[in-house]
Amino acid sequence: MLVTDRGSCLLDKLSLANVAQFLLPLVLIVLGTTLCAQAVTIQLLDGRSGRPVAATCVFVRAENDPRSWIPLLTDKDGIALLRLTDDNDNFEKECGSHSAIKAVVKYGDSLLLGVDHYVICQPHTPNYSWGTIQNISMKQLVRQGFVTPNTCGKPAVSPKPGQLVIFIRPFSFWERLWGSMRE
Question: What is the domain range of residue 110?
Fold first, then answer.
């Protein structure tokens, strides 16, 4: 036990309130930086109606990771969960019933995303990459959120930290025909 020169206990001098004032902000800072960088939700919305698109595959990969795409299957609310970590673990499986349930991507500079059998409602690039989004900043996604442009209709959503919203629509007959001719 620590004793002062007057014989009283040093711990009696420190009140519980002083200790709490020091520890509480420290704990909140540590937890806050850990929690905000752990999970990201990816939500697919129909660009024409604004309704969630359920049971659809979203393929994700960190731009700086040369491994293959990680498939995520959306739930009834059109949401898939992605964890960002400093580890090198990720899951490489087929989409459908064998999609990655707890997908993990190493935290890096940016994400690449693709959606199976749908057109992403964004301005098209010259190479007709209708189903791919590139260069979504992970830092921006965690801090501010990210919403893709919606060139398919009027529904709009405001970005929320840790949430990625992608507006999509089914391929038209002509787009399917064009895609089959390219293959």
Answer: 38-182
* Cβ-based neighbours of 10, under 8 Å, separated by 6 or more: 2, 3, 4
Segment 130-156, tens digit of pLDDT:
678 878 888 899 999 999 999 999 999
pLDDT number for residue 93: 53
Q: pLDDT digits over 166-176, tens only?
A: 999 998 888 77
Q: Which residue has 């020169």 as its token pair? A: 5
Residue 9 in domain: no
Task: List the CATH number of the domain containing 165.
Answer: 2.60.40.1120
Residue 33 has pLDDT above 50, yes or no: no
- Domain assignment present for 28: no
Q: Would strands 146-147 and 163-170 be described as parallel, antiparallel, or unpaired?
A: parallel
Distance CA 171, CA 38 (A): 33
